[in-house]
Amino acid sequence: MYLKKFFILLSILLLLSIEICAANLNITKLSNTNNKINIEFNNTLQLSDFTLENNNLISPFYENKGNKHYFFYFLNRDFKTNIINVINKKETVNNNSKGKIEYKINKCSIVKNPKTILAFMSVIFNDDIEINCNILNGKYGLWVAWPSIKGKDKWTKLFDIKDKNLKDEIDTELLKFYKKKKNDTKKL
């Protein structure tokens, strides 16, 4: 009887902690220029080039072989609705939010016959946003390529982590994860 109550209480506490963790991404900056929406969360994560179509927030994407590949995914419907409400001026921007940014590596798909791109990966931030990225092999070695698009003369970032320490930490974890998965794949 006591054990059952303990597990029920533990389950409630776990659900509350998940909700608290997921609720700490706040919009700290929003701009809308030429129908391109740029959003900053917690003065740290910058996402660019969204569009709002029929009250639906559309992530930037690239097309390959007739398929759309989105750079960003909102994993929580209420979170996405809140962003749309802020864009539509139904809610306010909290410029002073410095909530903790939590992340976890979600996927790692190793390319079988790589040229430049070695792996497709994604990172989930605060259980609300999933960002796709790639592991590339450049002239200086392996590096993480976050979403960007090529213009006429240069590449434009669609995603940036303003906190250099956090960015370095995440990049390091992604590269470690990739190397481990690649080594595990070789053993099969």
Distance separating the two termini: 47 Å
- What order do the SSEs take from the amino end to the carboxyl end, as H and E? HEEEEEEEHEEEEEEEH
Number of helices: 3
Total domain units: 1
Spans with pLDDT under 50 lasting ≥5 residues? 6-23
Q: Assess the beta-strand content as a share of residues.
A: 35-45%
Broad shape:
globular
**Radius of gyration, Cα only, in angstroms?**
19 Å
Mean pLDDT: 86
Helix content: 25-40%
Major sheet characteristics: 5 strands, antiparallel
Instruction: Kindly name the structural category.
Output: alpha+beta
The number of strands is 14
Architecture overview:
By secondary structure, the chain is an alpha+beta fold. The protein has one domain. 30% of the residues lie in helices and 41% in strands. It contains 3 helices and 14 strands. The strands form 4 sheets. Strands 1, 2, 3, 4 and 14 form a 5-stranded antiparallel sheet that branches. A hairpin with a 2-residue loop joins strand 3 and strand 4. About 10% of the residues have low confidence.
Short note summarizing the structure:
By secondary structure, the protein is α+β, with helices and mostly antiparallel strands.
List the SSEs and their pairings.
Elements (H helix, E strand, L loop, with lengths): L1 H21 L4 E7 L2 E6 L3 E9 L2 E3 L2 E4 L2 E4 L1 E3 L2 H11 L15 E8 L6 E9 L3 E10 L2 E5 L2 E3 L4 E3 L1 E3 L2 H24 L1
Antiparallel strand pairs: 1-2, 2-3, 3-4, 3-14, 5-6, 7-10, 8-9, 9-10, 10-11, 12-13
